[in-house]
Design brief:
The protein is mainly β and 122 residues long. Helix content is 0%, strand content 52%. The protein contains no helices and 11 strands. The protein has strands spanning 2-6, 9-12, 17-24, 33-38, 45-50, 57-59, 67-72, 77-82, 91-100, 109-112, 116-121. Strands 2, 4, 5, 6, 9, 10 and 11 form a 7-stranded mixed β-sheet that branches. It has a 4-stranded antiparallel β-sheet with strand order 1-3-8-7, with no helix packed on it. Strand 7 and strand 8 form a beta hairpin. The protein is globular.
């Protein structure tokens, strides 16, 4: 499994960013895919997940209404559109394949790849 996130960078409060994740080494189209993040000194946080073919999406309360997860199965790519960014969104962002669903998304198990740094400056 290879998951390479890209698109991070330094932005200001209120800005938008679109992250991408190129997936390979597994059958992308039959797996739930997710975005996770880890802020400095904090635990890994689940952000969003998307069903195999896209229509069903799920979000953490911290990003609901601001972030949008999407996918293009034709090119094995996952996206995260992030709007209204603030300093609390500063973190390394990872795309991830769902390995096992727990009792909630927050305690599920994922395989994640290399992350991309997002820094939001005020």
């Amino acid at each position: 499994v290879q998951l390479q996130a890209s698109g991070g960078g330094l932005v200001h409060t209120g800005d938008s960013l679109r992250l991408s994740c190129a997936a390979s080494g597994f059958t992308f189209s039959i797996h739930y895919m997710s975005w996770l993040r880890q802020a400095p000194g904090k635990a890994l946080e689940w952000l969003a997940s998307i069903y195999y073919d896209g229509p069903n999406t799920y979000y953490a309360d911290s990003v609901k209404g601001r972030f949008t997860i999407s996918r293009d199965n034709a090119i094995n790519t996952l996206y995260l559109q992030m709007n209204s960014l603030n300093a609390e969104d500063t973190a390394v962002y990872y795309c991830a394949k769902l390995d096992r669903y727990g009792t909630t998304w927050h305690d599920s198990q994922f395989t994640r790849g290399q992350g991309t740094q997002v820094t939001v400056s005020s």
